[in-house]
UniProtKB/TrEMBL annotation, chains A, B:
<dbReference type="InterPro" id="IPR036390">
    <property type="entry name" value="WH_DNA-bd_sf"/>
</dbReference>
<feature type="domain" description="HTH arsR-type">
    <location>
        <begin position="1"/>
        <end position="97"/>
    </location>
</feature>
<keyword id="KW-0804">Transcription</keyword>
<dbReference type="InterPro" id="IPR001845">
    <property type="entry name" value="HTH_ArsR_DNA-bd_dom"/>
</dbReference>
<dbReference type="InterPro" id="IPR011991">
    <property type="entry name" value="ArsR-like_HTH"/>
</dbReference>
<dbReference type="InterPro" id="IPR036388">
    <property type="entry name" value="WH-like_DNA-bd_sf"/>
</dbReference>
<dbReference type="Pfam" id="PF12840">
    <property type="entry name" value="HTH_20"/>
</dbReference>
<keyword id="KW-0238">DNA-binding</keyword>
<keyword id="KW-0805">Transcription regulation</keyword>
<dbReference type="InterPro" id="IPR051011">
    <property type="entry name" value="Metal_resp_trans_reg"/>
</dbReference>
<protein>
    <submittedName>
        <fullName>Helix-turn-helix transcriptional regulator</fullName>
    </submittedName>
</protein>
Length: 116, 116
DNA sequence: ACTTTATTTCAATTATTCTTGTAATATTGA
DNA sequence: TCAATATTACAAGAATAATTGAAATAAAGT
């Protein structure tokens, strides 16, 4: 159930900009409520079309989801995919030497199945 | 003790390329042993100077560390910083509505201090 | 000292991404 | 239907990043 590499790269690209990182964290803070595009743009203090450009990239990558509400577009952070991304990163960590993991304090290695 | 936004952006940029993502995951698998630049280049099947270019970016961002060993440069994944990056991402998640967190299955929210 | 090996640096080219402005689409309310 | 609002689409220029090749540095072995 691991992510495709291509998917992971797109997700990191989607996070690799100050604007988009701010947007994502804003949506994480909003939780399930999310925010509509105009609110996000107001919050970012950027032109609406620029924010829309970034939101498009983020939703295309899967980092956020979008739902239409009349003439509004409501965006939400896709936290489930973020979890998969983290798992992808730490997949097979310290392979063969699980005893290294605790000292490196990596969550994957603290798991009971680490090193399997 | 949260990361600076600029630091977080640089880390995501460092992960936002197929080549660098492969390198990072390779180093994660290697654990504390790490790998020297030439081994990494051989593993990536890319020109050494190209790999060096990417490694420089990654180490400048802090994603990996580098230690000189004679004429070799040994690179290791900086897992401690990765942990901080994850914390930065999920900081203040679902602020004010901690009851949303479990259903979103985000690790930060499963923590006992979620919503504080 | 000389040669080989490991790695980095620099410069040039190509490719990609960001921003801005303007126009288009589509929903709502009068 | 008409006007206003929310948002996206498109195009052009500016800014960044990636790749390649050639040269530089620096440690190790002879």
């Amino acid at each position: 159930m691991s992510l495709e590499k291509e998917t992971a790269v797109k997700l990191f690209e989607a996070l690799a900009s100050g604007v988009r990182l701010d947007i994502y964290r804003l949506l994480v803070r909003q939780g399930h409520e999310g925010m509509v595009a105009g609110q996000i743009a107001a919050n970012m203090d950027l032109p609406a079309n620029n924010v829309s450009f970034h939101l498009k990239g983020m939703s295309h990558a899967g980092l956020v989801t979008v739902a239409q509400e009349g003439r509004y577009q409501r965006y939400r952070a896709n936290l489930a995919l973020m979890q998969q991304l983290l798992a992808y990163l730490t997949d097979e960590c310290c392979a063969g030497q699980p005893q290294q993991c605790p000292e490196l304090a990596l969550p994957c290695c603290a798991a009971p199945d680490c090193g399997e």
